[in-house]
Specification:
Elements: H1 2-11, H2 14-39, H3 50-57, H4 65-80, H5 86-97, E1 113-115, E2 123-125, E3 141-146, H6 151-159, E4 173-175, E5 181-183, E6 189-191, E7 199-201, E8 204-206, E9 222-227, H7 245-258, E10 265-267, H8 268-271, H9 285-295
Parallel strand pairs: 1-5, 3-9, 3-10, 4-9
Antiparallel strand pairs: 2-6, 4-5, 7-8
Length: about 300
Amino acid sequence: MVFNLVRLWRSASRTTKLVVISALITMVLFKQVHSVNSRAPQVDASKPSAAAALSIQTSAPNLTRQLEQQLVMLERLYQSAPKLPVDELMRLEKLETEGYSSTVSIFLSAPPQYRIDAHPSNFGNRLSHNSQGKPIYYPLLVVLHETTSAASGAVNTVLTPHSQDKDQVSYHTIIRKDGSILYLVDPLKRAYGAGDSAFPGRDGLETVQTNKQLKSSVNNFAYHISLETPSDGYNDEPEHTGYSAAQYSSLAWLIAQCGVGENRITTHRAIDQAGERQDPRSFEMAWLQQYSAGTEG
């Protein structure tokens, strides 16, 4: 049989030989590919991919697409920050009072970041419609505050359950005097940082009433950042020595993560409709702009 095959091969035309050789090469390659595929791990189509899982994790059905895109990086930072016990925060504050510091004053990259979750009574869901049922389309607004106390005092306030609306309060984030960042409220949630407030946008006052029993505010589209007050500001004086270079540096870094422009950064004092809020006292926008320039590129 082998002799007959050899004789047939010798008598075959050049074209026939090329066809047979091409067929054999194709069969060998197919076999190799099939072998590799059979050894490869099989994908479970019922499970989302890693990218899809991240999208699901950071998705909030009540948000507009624009607001969700602005918050997605802040959400990732919040989720990845290690949790810090309040006792440890108070220990660090005691060390700093005694002249010791656990961190450097200016950071070459991302500042130290921690997470202490506020009590659920002190924040709510961001809503897609106001109390009259109208859609909400405002883009993200960064609102700056100050703690008027040590960071631990503000943290203890947001950790305390509050059943009455008038007592509920929170920030999304506190930036300590040493520049370290404390995440308190999930960015996808609505922190209660500014009641009875409105922001003068390009098309008029921006404010949302989410509860017919309460005055409207910017909370539904705001990201609230509070700067820890220096020790000489723990009183009702209108001014104090101001915030540290590390705080301005970390603030500029944090704002850069969500891509908000300078025209969407404001203070509690500027948006308060009752004219009672003065925070953040001694804040210098020029300092923020100086450090923001260092975060570009």
